[in-house]
Amino acid sequence: MQDRLHILEDLNMLYIRQMALSLEDTELQRKLDHEIRMREGACKLLAACSQREQALEATKSLLVCNSRILSYMGELQRRKEAQVLGKTGRRPSDSGLSAERSPCRGRVCISDVRIPLMWKDTEYFKNKGVLLFLSPDLHRWAVFLLLQLGEDIQDTEMILVDRTLTDISFQNNLLFTEARPDFELRLELYGACVEEEGALAGAPKRLATKLSSSLGRSSGRRVRASLENAGGSGSTPILLPTPAVGGPRYHLLAHTTLTLAAVQDGFRTHDLTLASHEENPAWLPLYGSVCCRLVAQPLCMTQPTASGSLRVQQAGEQQDWARVHGVLKGTDLFCYRQSEDADAGKEPLFTIAINKETRVQAGELDQATGRPFTLSISNQYGEDKMTHILQTESRGALQSWMEALWQLFFDMSQWKQCCDEIMKIETPAPRKPPQALAKQRSLYHEMGE
Prior knowledge:
449 residues; 20 strands; PH-domain like; 2 domains; six-stranded antiparallel beta sheet; coiled coil; seven-stranded antiparallel beta sheet
């Protein structure tokens, strides 16, 4: 039975690798190979570990690796479908012609996630407000977050939760670097009930062809649904075989999906969809909400989108023209004395605001030879209107500037509030290797030291 299981697993992994090779996508091949090796290592560690902390971490790693492999498989099937349709001259979608413009990508960061708990008074308090300390019959949960945006899947550290805590707090900053403005960030909370003797209780070793049996019924349903939806090519989905080793069982406790509308340079509270309690009577009592900081940085706000030599007639000056080096970045057109000043980070001579209310108008493109190629940029400040006239050196340069400005306006319309001002994103610190699983500190314990 064990040999058959290993053969089934090897065949599935071989099929996944062959799909990646057929598309000649070296980056996707590299990602798949990495996760397959990580999965193999997690399976070996889970089979060998004897400590509770090791088993919890190994099972968590296995769940994350499986999720990433399934995500990459879905991407492989989508690309395979596009490749086949491209050869036959058909479009992947019958929705009509694709949009002429595509919005810029951006970075999305979620941080300071807090999930409140809702213990009953009899569970949290005892004897007129004295805190109930940890006891052998007290249920504890090892929990972590799994977050997915597109094919990118990330996870938080794992923490231990018991009835002395009023909320679950994750301090990780998770950064997604290839987000579109129509992104959907799915947040999932997983948990394993931890008991002194139950954490390493071996499950019956049986031939398993479904991933769900190793992750719990709730998470298994999600994985099956995501895999079935990922394909769309009509072929039978590939299911990863389950390692025939015992270990903790993780359950999907709650989930939510965050979109561009949730982005704000501050903390917001969002609703959580709670999973059913049918699998475990001692379910972690979630309040049904999550608080976090979700910010986004479109590339148009952080990287220059156009630059070049310009002659500018400033508002109110009918005769004088200033020759400058213009740099379009974010919601400003910076005008420097020379290009070296921009490269050195010096202050510009002046700045022209470009926002959602700015009006841009180009001069005639079919002007006679020798006539200047111009465009005007107008901003309204109360009752006052300020207009700058820009001259370019050629018709091609004028077209390039106009294209950059129209693309910026399009990006602003798609990224919305993210283009009002640059939101701060802190670079996530490198992940440290898992330490011995430690319970979160409660305020009561911190005050007692």
